[in-house]
Amino acid sequence: MSVAVNLAPRLAIARIRATRGAGVLDAMAVLAFTISSWLALTVAGGTWMFYRRWSVDGALSDAQWADVAPAYVGLAGFACALLVVPILGLGGGAARLGARGRARRLASLRLIGMTSGEVVRMSVIETIVQAVAGVVLGSVVFAASLPAWQLVAFQQQHIRAGEMLLPWWLWLAVVGALLLLSVASTVVGLQRVSISPLGVARDQSPSKLKAWRLAAVVVLVAGFLIYSRFSSVASLVGLVTTVGFLAVVIGSINLVGPWLLQLVSRPRTRTASVPRLLAARRILDDPRGAWRNVSSLALLGFVAGFVVTMPVTTTGAPSDVYSVSFVRDVQTGVAITLGVGLVLAAMATLMAQASQVFDRAQESVALERMGVPSAVHARVRRSLVLVPLAVALGTSVPLGLLLSTVVATEMDSFPVVGVVMLAVTIALGFLLSLGAAEACRPLQAGVLSQQQRRND
Amino acid sequence: MAPPASPWSTGGMTTTDAPTTLAARGISKSYGDVRALADVSIDIPRGQSVAIMGPSGSGKSTLLHCLSGILVPDAGVVSLGEDAVSALRDKQRSLLRRRRFGFVFQDGQLLPELPARENVALPLLLGGKSRMEALAAADQWLARLGLAGMEARRPGELSGGQAQRVAIARALVHGPDVVFADEPTGALDQATGHEVMQVLTTTTAMAGSTLVLVTHDDEVAGWCQRLVEIRDAMIHADQPITGGTR
Fold first, then answer.
1. What ipTM did this prediction achieve?
2. What residue stretches are annotated with the ABC3 transporter permease C-terminal domain (chain A) (predicted)?
3. Are B166 and B119 in contact (CB under 8 A)?
């Protein structure tokens, strides 16, 4: 253990000092952990606030809201459930950041005699240090952002500064989950690249994903459509079953997504355009990885599609002041959820693309020496972002729309958000992801301009 | 549709008919306080194969990088025929490398996601050839280099020698004036290294291209016509190799 403990910080410091090197990835991993812990604490804080308003006498200034207070807790819990996947995904992504480069480095350490156990322990230590730094920073950002939430009102009551503050045990549970996941992602990631003294050889043709994925999703969606005709959400059991079934259907997007990416990318390899060819081949090389980068946006696309006609039942007439406020609160909640999700998705894209810049540094330098213009790299990156994004939103938004119309027919309902929010979400999804891809330009330029003195 | 480029033609890329000399005049290059090249001059006529040798840190790779326009010397001029390579802007040098030079690196530096034929076709695709033409030319080169039937294999599915032959095909497919090879056998065993050198020297000779090769291996250098020895950032010896294989 002592070898790993001694070596890990030295290597990390050396990387960070090498300003143009992969030290940027360490900084980015800390940033990702900061953002994921900040947003995780924020959504947990929001849910905690609704719980306190419901459970503590006098927390709500207007007692009329007491009847619908549980619904707020439920909706906030639903938003948490939706965001937990991208938040944990970002944490996991941070742990996998630069995995290929790290694998090469670790292979060298294996060559000089470190055991595989020591190598894994060293990586886990690196991840824990990054994650702890991120969690501390994220907690500070969370605390600093609390006053800003006073601008937002729910239940006709502005959020007070201390309302979203978490009790210590809940804070510990949230950050503990993030830390555990990052460690698990590191260990699983290292096993996947199987560090051997001879390095990592993963340059063989990947096995094709099979069409059963599509069949499974079609069966699930059809099953849900049939189920929703014969079920009722009036009872608690009915509601829980429907939401559970819906969650399985939402999750199934991740099953068919990589297969669809493979399907779309295969014909795209028949091109004379080098950027398009490289992007298509890279997606085909790892369709699951390409999908993972946009899976949180697929989830958002589904939510955005779903809420366009999502039913909201109210106890009073639509003109009733409480009903109007309730609908407005749901709209605010949906906007916050989508906003948080978009930030997470953009950060995930940034990490994935930055990771690729360093993982493929050697190839990029070789291409540059051959005279390939640097614009080709930028176009490859854009394609790598846009194609999966188009497939993700092209699948999830229609699915969200389809399922929401089915659920909507069950109740007296009215649209919570219009197509405007759907369009804004899609546009922002594309813009933020493209922005994240463009943000990698300086990293790429740094990698290409790095003048290494060869052993000449 | 135009017929695919012959493995021994220029592939339709821009080349001059007159013998093109690659030349360096008084070039110097330093990395901070470390002097890698000091007032080096050399002329390499078209079609010649030159081995650059020298101990570690002598400046041999820096000379290759300056000659190929990857690096710009701090002083002096590098020219290819009438073109002053070292005076070109970065974008123009990229274009020159793409059109008129071919490269073979130590470990091939093939793109791992692309099958062999697409790796070879890359320079032609970048030069604006149609996919069909580029792939046809690539297949011809692969067959010529003994890799028929392996067109669809990815680099990870090839042996070191096979991968290096794919890299040679990629370096020659667009009919370059000069092929630069930086320790092309450095990652190979002796027998495979000899096989790769044989392929590299004969194919560049038959294509009429100049070969500039950096190596620290006497036997590898023995495949060339001329030996340039670099020591302490300067040319220490420049002589023909008697009994050179080319």
1. 0.79
2. 97-194
3. yes
